[in-house]
Design a protein that fits this description.
This protein is of the alpha+beta class and 152 residues long. It has four helices and six strands.
Length: 152
């Protein structure tokens, strides 16, 4: 008998735990677009096309200048190479430290071509770097170049 009363009590309690019906509750618009700060952001990196620096938009690159330089280190992807994009940066220039107005790499910066310097500088500036003067100082291999702007 006690078991039967216990079972009835549990059933009554469980019956009172249901979700009560309600009318439609209006909400706001669902979010759309990529999440702020996601790694799926687009980024501008600079490659060489017909001997000139050209901005190229990449997807899936982080927001800070160091992320962009790492994307630049990967070189043009297959589609970009098929379209004629190249890089004048050494195969592994090893970005060591990239800040807002400076970038240190693992090769002698004096050995870089003007386009290779431009690829680095313009990529950092396109990522919001360069500080108020919109210049970047490159160093590497025990050498430091004067602050450079994109295009000069």
């Amino acid at each position: 008998m006690k078991r039967l009363l216990g079972l009835i009590a549990i059933m009554l309690l469980a019956a009172g735990c249901g979700v009560r019906p309600s009318g439609v509750i209006p909400g706001e618009e669902a979010p759309s677009g990529p999440a702020v700060g996601s790694v799926g952001n687009t980024a501008t990196v600079y490659f060489v096309l017909d001997g000139k620096l050209v901005p190229v938009v990449r997807n899936g690159v982080g927001e800070v200048p160091a992320d962009r330089v790492r994307a630049l280190e990967q070189g043009p992807n297959e589609d970009e190479r098929a379209s004629g994009y190249t890089t004048e940066l050494p195969p592994s220039f090893e970005p060591i430290a990239v800040g807002i107005s400076e970038a240190a790499i693992g090769v002698n910066v004096r050995d870089l071509t003007p386009n290779a310097v431009g690829q680095l500088v313009c990529t950092v500036i396109a990522a919001g770097g360069g500080g108020p003067a919109k210049t970047v100082t490159l160093s590497g291999g025990g050498q430091t170049l004067r602050p450079q702007g994109c295009g000069g």
